[in-house]
Design goal:
Blueprint lengths: L8 E10 L2 E5 L4 E5 L12 E8 L5 E4 L10 E10 L3 E4 L7 E4 L16 E8 L5 E5 L2 H7 L11 E10 L2 E6 L4 E5 L12 E9 L5 E4 L4 H18 L3 E2 L7 H8 L3 H13 L3 E4 L2 E4 L2
Parallel strand pairs: 3-5, 13-15
Antiparallel strand pairs: 1-2, 1-4, 2-3, 4-5, 6-7, 6-9, 7-8, 9-10, 11-12, 11-14, 12-13, 14-15, 16-18, 17-18
Helix pairs in contact: 2-4
Family: Belongs to the CvfB family.
Pfam families: CvfB_1st (PF21191), CvfB_2nd (PF21543), S1_2 (PF13509), WHD_CvfB (PF17783)
Protein name: S1 motif domain-containing protein
Amino acid sequence: MNQLQPGMKAQLTVEREVSFGYFLSNGEEDVLLHTNEIVGEIEIGQEIEVFLFNDKEGRLTASMHLPSIIEGEYGWAPVVDVHPSHGVFLNIGLQKDLLISADDLPRIKRIWPEVGDELYVTLMVDSRGRLFGRLATETVVQELSQPAPQSLMNKEFEGRAYRLLKVGTFILTTEGYRCFVHESERSVEPRLGELVKGRVIGVKEDGSLNGSLLPRTHERLDEDAEGILTYLESRGGSMPYWDKSDPEDIQKRFGMSKAAFKRALGRLMKEGKVSQADGWTTVKK
């Protein structure tokens, strides 16, 4: 018979009642099920499934609150609290939330998960029997992800960021496909665990995807044109930029390439909203 250890589920028999709960047994070992960890009603002789963990004093204890994730298995768990020095806490169905250490999170805190984001994790038990969470590695995601069909090309996707690098963002879609978004295909870097929506721009031979979080070209034109108009309005209707302005000046001021700027400006002129002259663009009255 396997020895009872923290972090495992077990089928145990309700052996006897005490003032603060019940003692359960597998025939060799007894474990306390505290009143606070009971779900529903139980009776002597009944066999119940419980989760085992160490209490604050380091004693093996049982709970009828079963976790959604156990050691050796991976799943999504929602972030319920963020502590700047300790890390983030996840709800996996236990009375006590599961910690992902700050050491396992990005160095830049602005891309840490927020409450409501979800992380792809497993449950771990340290040498003292304490429970903590561990993020899935790239190797684990590769093993658990599904190969994507070619039919997904140009289709929309939804998923959560599970790995953040300077060169891009790795996303696991809701269908279980791995997707890489290059830094040039995102306007801002998603948080770890953030739910994002995008479109597939490539299906690789290994079944992984390349994606984009940027709007499609026609949608982007609308956003770029709106940004130019907003800037014009903030300056009283005119600005010292036009379609012959320096590309670096355009990038610095508007965050877009000169080509994108010219397309958006051309659209505004075609719609009769602005005019250009002598290096200036002006809103038409």
